[in-house]
UniProtKB/TrEMBL annotation:
The lineage of its organism: Bacteria, Bacillati, Actinomycetota, Actinomycetes, Micrococcales. Transmembrane segments: none annotated. This is Single-stranded DNA-binding protein. The keyword Aminoacyl-tRNA synthetase does not apply. It holds the Pfam family SSB.
Length: 181
C-alpha cells in the first residue's frame, strides 16, 4: 500500500537490462533505469530531452520478481514509486539526507507482447556470432534457426511499420545507447 502524499508515476522505456544484486539471506536488490522523455521542447534546437531515472526494487527471499523478470532493455512500461529518505549521522557528527526512488509494485506493460518479442528476436539475431559460410548443401540447425528468426523479425517489422507511424521528433530507443554512450 502506498502513501498518496509520497507517490509518483513514470512512463518510459527501460534504458538497460535490470541489474540484480543477491543478498546473503536469499533476497535481492534490483536497479532499474528508465528513460523518460520530457513533455516539452527546450533549448535553441527545440528538442525533447530524455531523463534517465534510476529506481530500486527489493525482492524478498523465496519470491520471484513478478513482472520485473519479463522486462528487458527498450520495453515501454509504467512504474509507480516513492521517495525513500533515511537520514543518518556520520562519524564527524554531520547529518546526511540521502534519497532513493523505490518501486511500489510491478511494471505495467504499455506495448503488445508481440513487439517485445520482436525486439528480443532482433537482439538474438544481432548477438548471434558470425560463422564462416557453410557449404552450399549443408545447413546447420543454428543457421536454420537464425533464418527463421530473421524471417519472423522481418514480418513483425513490416506489420509494425504499417500499423504505427513514427511521430516527428520521436526518440528511437532501440538504436540509442543508454546514457549517450
Amino acid at each position: 500500500m502506498s502513501n498518496p502524499a509520497n507517490h509518483a508515476h513514470l512512463i518510459g522505456r527501460l534504458a538497460q537490462d535490470i541489474k540484480s544484486f543477491p543478498n546473503a539471506d536469499g533476497s535481492r536488490k534490483q536497479l532499474i533505469t528508465i528513460a523518460v522523455d520530457d513533455n516539452f521542447r527546450s533549448g535553441s534546437e527545440k528538442s525533447i530531452a530524455t531523463n534517465f531515472i534510476q529506481l530500486e526494487n527489493f525482492v524478498p527471499a523465496g519470491r520471484n520478481a513478478g513482472g520485473w523478470d519479463r522486462v528487458h532493455n527498450g520495453d515501454l512500461i509504467a512504474v509507480d514509486y516513492r521517495v525513500d529518505a533515511k537520514p543518518y549521522t556520520d562519524s564527524k557528527g554531520e547529518t546526511h539526507y540521502p534519497q532513493k526512488l523505490v518501486v511500489d509494485g510491478f511494471p505495467t506493460f504499455l506495448e503488445p507482447k508481440s513487439v517485445t518479442e520482436a525486439r528480443a528476436a532482433k537482439k538474438a539475431v544481432a548477438a548471434a556470432p558470425e560463422t564462416p559460410a557453410p557449404a552450399a548443401e549443408t545447413k546447420t540447425e543454428a543457421d536454420s534457426r537464425i533464418a527463421q528468426l530473421e524471417a519472423e523479425l522481418a514480418a513483425v517489422r513490416d506489420a509494425r511499420n504499417a500499423a504505427v507511424p513514427v511521430a516527428a521528433g520521436a526518440v528511437d530507443y532501440e538504436n540509442q545507447a543508454p546514457f549517450g554512450g
